[in-house]
Amino acid sequence: MATATLMGSLFGMSATATAATDSVATDIPLQTEAAPAAAPDADALAKKLANPIAAMISMPFQNNFDWGGGPDGDGFQYKLNFQPVIPMTINEDWNLITRIIIPFVSQSDVVGNTSQSGLSDTTVSMWFSPSSPTASGWTWGVGPALLIPTGTNDFLTADQWAAGPTAIVLRQTDKFTYGALVNQLWSFSGGKGYADVNQIFIQPFFVYLPGGGWTVALNTETTYNFTSSEWTVPVNLMVNKMIKIGKLPAQWQAGVRYYAEAPDNAPDWGLRCSLTFLLPRS
Hints:
Layout: H1 2-10, H2 39-49, E1 57-69, E2 75-82, E3 85-89, E4 94-108, E5 115-119, E6 122-130, E7 138-148, E8 160-172, E9 176-190, E10 198-211, E11 214-220, E12 222-225, E13 230-245, E14 248-261, E15 269-279
Antiparallel strand pairs: 1-2, 1-15, 2-4, 3-4, 4-5, 4-6, 6-7, 7-8, 8-9, 9-10, 10-11, 10-12, 11-13, 12-13, 13-14, 14-15
């Protein structure tokens, strides 16, 4: 039960760092209906979205499709991560960036020859971050992370409350964004019969901005489970494009994922597509 449950929660571990990616911003400029977004505006928004702790409100809906998991290697899992990013201005020098990742999972032949659907566990990350980058262009944030056992199925939850630190550091230039996000979670309460949570999440990322609202992103969403001594290392290559839906700026994303290292019953490869809405700050 504990191993199967843990694997159910590991598929798509972007939920722990989730990831989701954005320099510090204020209000999002909205174009008039008659005038499409100019390239500089689209590029500016794309650059902010390349920074996970930009001070802008975003509402990503991230769809993940994974194949090759389960004991027979023919399992399939679909995971929808709803992961809103909500910034709050503390004062003129500091922001608090909160990201909540709420996963819905539907899978078959991942746990034996059975199927499960429902919510998985929710991750909340909070970063205290300076409102301006350093003189050399670096941005950073630190704070707490919390795992909440919201899973509605025994095989989609770790059934543990867990907490620990999270940190991010990144640098942005005209054409590139690169950095890393890390968190460590330890369980402090939970259901009997489930393994303790003791895992680290490491997400190095590299984003290229060629212009025209396009970005190309490469990252890994690496998890090391200290309880089972297992690595899960999905590598994601994604293409993103700024668009408008009505008057609302948005970004679509499409990409592929390869599991460079994973436990025996983890998937082999996957696809990701997402749509992120950008909302103006009041």
